[in-house]
Amino acid sequence: MSTPNRVYIARLAGVAVFDPNGDQVGRVRDAVARIRPAQRPPEVVGLVAEMPMRRRIFLSINRITSIDADAVVLGTGTLNLRRFEKRPNEVLVLQELLDRRVQVEPDGWPGMVVDVAMERSRSGEWSLTRVAVREQTGRLTRRGHLQQVEWDRVRGLSGISDKRGTANLLAVLEEMRPADLANALQDLPDARRNEVAAALDDERLADVLSELPEHDQVEILAALDRERAADVLEEMDPDDAADLLNELPPPEQDVLLDLMEPDEANPVRQLLRYASGTAGSVMTSEPVILPPDATVAEALARIREPQLSPAVAAQVFVTRAPMTTPTGRYLGMVHFQRLLREPPADLLGGVVVNDIDPLRPTTPLPEITRRMATYDLVAMPVVDRTNRLVGAVTVDDVLDHSLPRDWRERDAVPSPGPADEAVGGADG
């Protein structure tokens, strides 16, 4: 596998990183360049890769044997698993340069940075040599025209600039899973993070907020106007929205709930009434619910809906009407594996299982964990005193509330031990 002499860095975002044995060790998230004096282009010293558990590490450019649009391959050596920390004379190319407003000499026309190329010299040194700039002028014949220009012709690349948009950074981030995008946002300065978050559409931002630590959720929500904040809360699962609102003062909770559509706000209000650490406080109020006269085929169609999480789609809860929580009398549940074994025309009432006692809203989290582990369940029903289904606790709900509150924090990942340092790959 050969490496081209010129590589545009935005195209590397998300590319898999492999060790010499062909095992994937992470994905590229950025490139690190060192600022040099006398107008010399910055030297690219390495890449930032994201490992499992959201750890970002530094990969020295000297340890990389090949780079292309499909893979980055490391040479032999020791992989340094220390968390990456940028030094004062370094720049993160994608995070800090994309969307920057610049001027291109000699004419001084304004533009916005879309991508930056690094190029390898005969001596093997990589430098930032060319910049892809989209013109930002009022002349119709040139508006939006993309040009590739030499690094030294571009003014405004050094120093801190507040004149940046979000379009090109969002283009780099758009293919990331919500959890990975949330992780990337944590690397940005607060103002930049809030700017990028605000540029996401409501549904995407709702998914990302659910993956962020509580204090980041609150700060991003506070940076939005209240109407937009209410719209985003409506897109969140009710249990996630309730968790976020629980971090706000009660008067602010009331304002946002009043701005939400009643049908979206009511389940959240109900969840906010339950005591912390109970089934009621961690459950989802929107599991898959069907009547006993629904067919197996109808149930399979419901759990195939793409917006359902794997834990929610793993089973169907069977109740009497109404089919929204709180439902009519709870009858039992059917796991998706059972649905796959039954004839499609059979009725759910004939295959329902009800030999496990449901949870109550007041059931404490340790008891929920014990019972789910005992019966190897990924979800359990929650019923009220009159045996109406009010929600379901899923395994991801239990994990979220059993782990330490700071588990989503980047710095909460334990430092590597000596055994971790001996992994084959590249060092920083």
From TrEMBL:
Gene Ontology molecular function terms on file: magnesium ion transmembrane transporter activity
A Pfam family this chain is assigned to: CBS
Alphabetized InterPro entries for the sequence: CBS_dom, CBS_dom_sf, Mg_transptr_MgtE_intracell_dom, MgtE_N_sf, MgtE_transporter, SH3_actinomycetes
Gene3D superfamilies: CBS-domain, MgtE N-terminal domain-like
Domain of life according to the entry: Bacteria
Transmembrane segments: none
Swiss-Prot/TrEMBL keywords: CBS domain
Ranges where the record places region Disordered: 406-428
The keyword Repeat is annotated on this UniProt entry: no
GO cellular component, one term: membrane
Annotated CDD domains: CBS_pair_Mg_transporter
Domain (CBS): residue spans on this chain: 283-351, 352-412
Protein name: Mg/Co/Ni transporter MgtE (Contains CBS domain)
